[in-house]
Here is the input.
Amino acid sequence: MAAAAMAFIVVVASDTPQTGSAQTAVTPLGLGSRPIGIAIDAAGGRIYVTNSGQDTLAVLDLSSGSLVGKIPTGAEPGLVLFDPASRRVYVSNFRSGNITVVDAGASGATNPTSDPMDPTSPSAVVSTLPVGGLGLALDPVAKRIYAASGTSLAVIDATTSRVIARVQAPAGANLWGAAVDRTSNRVYLTDLFTARVLVFDGATDRWPTPVS
Here is the structure.
């Protein structure tokens, strides 16, 4: 009989008063299966962890590290992003190629059920966006979220959680990871196929010419 998988959260506390060095604690939690992405809502006191093997988003208490409950997502959730301005959580689902949008202030998120498939539990899911599946990045100044999905890049209005643009990737590119420089309004994306970083102009929603 195969042993049951156990998920762990590793907590690193830096600059401790006693030694000035980092201390590490390993906490086993009943997260689910194959946890991948993690995001923190410091003001709300919550940690969000995606369970790619269970199609759920685990909600943890930031102070105690205890599991509060789980929220259903799309298939194989990977990366997760928390927007503190809108208090919404964006979960990028790899297998289903979409994004689950969760209202962090809803009762279904603050006190989710231990059984995410319970039809009587309140829902915290605001919507499912038919884009993404890979990297996510937030521009808090422009109030935009960028979602990579291989052959395209989606631009999401962080205020309304609606897709406002979908731009095709340059020929032969496979967009994966994403990061935003909010001072220049540029988005940097890794290209899995050609081992390069592409730069997207967030001000015009276009690729520069030539692509760099």
Summary: The radius of gyration is 18 Å.
